[in-house]
Amino acid sequence: MSEMIKVGMADLKLCISPNAITTLGLGSCVGIAIRDPITKIGGLAHIMLPDSTKISNNQCIAKFADTGIAELVRIMVEAGASRNRLVAKIAGGAQMFALQGKSETIAVGARNAEAVVKILGEMKIPILARDTGDSYGRTVEFFPETGDFIIKAVGKDIKKI
Amino acid sequence: MEGMYFDILSEIGNIGAGNATTALAQMLNTKVDMKVPKVELLEFSQVGEAMGGEEQLMAGIYQIVEGDITGSIMFLLEEKSAITLISKLMGTPEVDNAFEFGEMEHSALKEIGNIITGSYLSSLSTLTNLKIIASIPAISIDMCGSILSVPAIEFGAVGDKMLLIQTEFSDDVKLTGFFILVPDLESYDKILSSLGM
Q1: Nearest chain A CA: its distance from B141 CA (Å)
Q2: DSSP class of residue B2?
Q3: CATH assignment of A4-160, given 3.30.1330.200, 3.40.50.11810, 2.40.50.140, 3.40.50.10320?
Q4: What is the DSSP letter of B180?
């Protein structure tokens, strides 16, 4: 029996095939699914902010792109994944509200997605697919067995990337 | 300190919701009752659940707050409540799905949000004697979790919890709405000191 593991906001978890892992209602946050295709060890992080070094209250490592991705990779390697084989898929980073240039927060979705791409690049983890930006929320499901990343949005067809 | 801040915002929530009830009654031209608001300080991971699940469809009306304090305020309305309210306000039949709303319904919901958050902010302004101005509202009809990511990210920059005020209005039907107020750090001090703390 396989299980669907749930990841909350500012949270990350390990997921080993045949289990699958999900996070619900990603808005401006970004979901990062990482997988080792050989051992089929995977994981998912749901980050809220781009950079832990810019904020004094940064104990919650799963909240930030930099510390969240590093921690996810660490627990995956600890579970037996190969650091060099890791590949990623990402989704989220939407701009939920259209308020003309009023606040920095409004563009945080784009900044989150940008930060995730940069960090994965620095860590030499290839991004196989992405579904980021736009103005709608996304629920994602990740299957470490196949690497399928399923994206669901209100009023839209289910997407597999 | 967090406890005191919580108490103050709760009290402001109570008064604000009272004012909002009056505004709503005038708008709908009917009698509106309000339950005592439920105020909770929640971990990010719990907020979606507290509002009925991260994937529940909701209408979120978001405004930036400026003036003596800065931050943002959001009013969220459950899908069913939004549908009922729009039908009553516009005299049209209830739609099946809030995602079907057009430009006109969006404008009406923005105005409702504007009036309700305005009541809340004016009680905060009266209590603190601070000048508070709200921007033009923006709307999103989407999954609760996605809408919440916006105030959560703002809270996320200062802490790991957010303050949720749940308000239930009723006349012949029940309307459930939520307020989320996010003053930034500097404003937090200003609110406290203006109240003599």
Answers
A1: 9
A2: H
A3: 3.30.1330.200
A4: E
